[in-house]
Amino acid sequence: MKFRCERDVLFDALSTAQRAVSTRGGSLPVLSGVRAHLSGDHLELTGSDLDLTITVDVVVAGETDGTVVVPAKLASDIVRALEPGAVSFSAEDGEAQISGGRSEFSIRLIPADEYPRLPEPEGDGVSLQTDEFAQALRQVVSAASNDDSRPILTGVLLAAEGDGLRLVATDSYRLAVRDLPGTSVLSAGQQVLVPSRALSELGRVLGQADQLVLRLGERDASFELGGIRVTTRLIEGEFPNYRSLIPAEQPNRLTVGREVLLDAIRRVKLVAQEASSPVRLVMSSDQLELIAITQDVGQAHEGLDAKYEGEELTVAFNPNYLLDGVEVAPGDEVTLLSVDALKPALLRSVDNPEFLYLLMPVRVS
């Protein structure tokens, strides 16, 4: 194999494919590498841990076709360290030479015949607008759990809702829901559970194309944009009945500027240094007061102008979870709908009814 390519183009492709490379001990050693396949002027770079696969196609100046597997991190670090300009890559007899400027590296390759055969994406392609889908991912994915002992909660539910698509994620402490009306990618009643890790990686590259193509197979989902394809195994199992978590009525309604609330949360949480230190929201008719108290550290108080309808109420939340919801809520103003200090509260945008963020309060004395 032999080709030439601009350093930045090759580095971007390598680092993108590398994000799917296995970092788990005990997995196939070959999965610590990126598979490079050259045919003519088309270089295909693939990283995979068998659950998630990222393939990147780039155009290079190809000289000799071939397939090799390079150590992912080492190859990426070398290319990044080279001077800007053209990079030459050649591979022969189990070694690869990477050179640029006056630098030249020789690295051992991983046997390419050990790389597993990866399934091709199945299903018909359905197009999505990348800007709306990217925003939906940003609003929902962070609410999924990182706890692999509860695999169902590490996924994001994609479900047909009315004439569109609904994205839902929860870690049992908060719930994020985003509707995309008119985005008909699933048949009526259909739903799939996509690993949040795959959607997080997809979100990183969504700005590189206007159109995203989704293909759904029986056990996997594939997202294609530009020269990048992200393929992931679907999670099997029943997603929790999230609708039952949403209170039917919320008699207390707080309306406040989103940016003002964001800044205030960031300030008062400076003294909420422990996970068990909540931020209290004291709501009354003409203002909102934020209070954070951490024993042996200190306390913070901040008052905000806000509109409040309902009985005077104090509700406490995990400051990071509250901040996450306010950060991704669209529009200039948000509303916090609550029942009492112990029942779930709903954070919504005044201007955009398609986003909902439910947050469990923290019990405080």
Describe this structure in words.
The chain is an alpha+beta fold. The chain folds into 3 domains: 2-114, DNA Polymerase III, subunit A, domain 2 (DNA Polymerase III, Chain A, domain 2, Roll); 125-243, DNA Polymerase III, Chain A, domain 2 (Roll); 246-359, DNA Polymerase III, subunit A, domain 2 (DNA Polymerase III, Chain A, domain 2, Roll), CATH 3.10.150.10. Helix content is 18%, strand content 43%. It has 6 helices and 26 strands. The chain has helices at 7-18, 72-81, 130-140, 196-205, 258-268, 319-328; strands at residues 2-6, 33-39, 42-48, 52-59, 61-64, 66-71, 86-92, 95-100, 103-108, 125-129, 155-161, 164-170, 174-180, 191-195, 211-216, 220-225, 228-233, 252-257, 279-283, 287-294, 298-305, 307-309, 313-317, 333-338, 345-349, 355-359. The strands form 4 sheets. A 9-stranded antiparallel β-sheet has the order 14-11-12-13-26-25-24-18-22. It has an 8-stranded antiparallel β-sheet with strand order 6-2-3-4-17-16-15-10. Strand 16 and strand 17 (228-233) form a beta hairpin. Helix 1 (7-18) packs antiparallel against helix 2 (72-81) and helix 5 (258-268) runs antiparallel to helix 6. The longest helix has 12 residues, at 7-18. The protein is elongated, with a radius of gyration of 24 Å. It starts with a strand and ends in a 6-residue tail after the last strand.
